[in-house]
Design goal:
The chain is of the alpha/beta class and 323 residues long. The protein is 39% helix and 16% strand.
């Protein structure tokens, strides 16, 4: 049983979820976590009426219902609800969808979650103390070693840091942060069926510092961890200049790249797989995937949003569930 949260109601999340299920056979058992009022929108209603959708309001009904597409009504959302911009009510609603899905995981009613996009500003307006899914899931599940990762057919990467200002990145590159990224890269490789993965780490500075000529962060932060792992028989290649590393990985020379900060990872990922990249959270008690895009408020409820990234996120989770 796979859980799917609808994300920010004012964005493209509900649209891509319902349109996806209306466009392909239903091959698993799913629970959609949202608010019933979302079903009142004409576009959502257009796709929902094509589906064998059963609305439930209680956790006990997840196991009791034989239906393979359930809709868990998580509570009140006004009609009409705000569409196309950040909104505190939508922020609270999207947070409730996630927390309800987490409770279903805790009760062992679902085994993984695909999350549609949330709006960080909506969260902030609602007073929710999280900036993203990754930090929310890490804290709420009390998981210590969690990493954000991205998958495309040509490039896979795990991040050592996530949504922090660039000026804070060097200080955040602690030994624990790098070791966490490495261990989760190994975990990632098991999903990909790689027994002896080639994992490389990017440099922080131009030319990976060029032996201190352009910065010494590589010597201070990266090399000690690389040397420690080597003594344990765990090869980590690098640091390798980022301007060539991602090209080499995309050509198949490396299986997984450890990226040091958000845009270092996301620029090549979105360049190579803008429509089919998958965001994955590693290190949780369950697998969580997400499309690699935001709420796209400018496209919301116009029947124009691409389904590709959401479908890729769903396929990745389904494939893992089948193992």
């Amino acid at each position: 049983m796979i859980g799917i949260t609808l994300g920010d109601p004012g964005g493209i999340g509900p649209e891509i979820v319902f349109k996806t299920f209306a466009s392909q056979p239903i091959s698993f058992n799913y629970v959609l976590f949202g608010a019933k009022s979302i079903l009142s929108h004409p576009l959502i209603r257009q796709y929902a009426k094509k589906l064998p959708l059963t609305i439930i309001r209680d956790y006990n009904e997840i196991n009791q219902r034989p239906d393979n597409l359930l809709f868990f009504d998580c509570g009140e959302l006004p009609i009409p609800f705000c569409i196309g911009s950040p909104n505190a009510i939508n922020g609270k609603a999207s947070y409730t969808f996630i927390m309800t899905a987490l409770q279903a995981v805790n009760q062992q009613l679902i085994t993984g979650i695909v999350t549609a996009p949330i709006c960080k500003e909506s969260f902030q307006m609602a007073g929710i103390p999280y900036k993203d899914h990754t930090s929310l899931l890490k804290i709420e599940t009390q998981s210590r070693r969690v990493s954000m990762a991205f998958y495309t057919p040509r490039l896979k990467t795990v991040l050592a840091t996530i949504h922090i200002p660039y000026r804070d990145v060097p200080d955040a590159l602690t030994a624990d942060a790098i070791l966490t990224a490495y261990e989760n890269s190994r975990l990632f490789s098991t999903y990909l069926g790689l027994l002896s993965p080639k994992i490389a780490i990017a440099g922080l500075n131009p030319h990976a510092g060029e032996n201190g000529l352009f910065g010494d962060e590589e010597q201070r932060y990266l090399l000690p961890v690389i040397e420690q792992l080597a003594t344990e028989g765990k090869p980590l290649l690098g640091p390798i200049p980022a301007d060539t590393l991602y090209h080499r990985a995309a050509q198949g020379e490396f299986d997984i790249v450890i990226s040091l900060y958000h845009d270092q990872a996301l620029i090549p990922i979105k360049l190579l797989g803008f429509f089919d990249a998958v965001n994955i959270t590693l290190g949780l008690p369950f697998l969580r995937t997400s499309p690699d895009h935001g709420t796209a408020f400018e496209l919301a409820y116009q029947d124009r949003a691409s389904l590709d990234s959401f479908k890729a996120a769903l396929r990745f989770l389904e494939k893992y569930q089948k193992k």
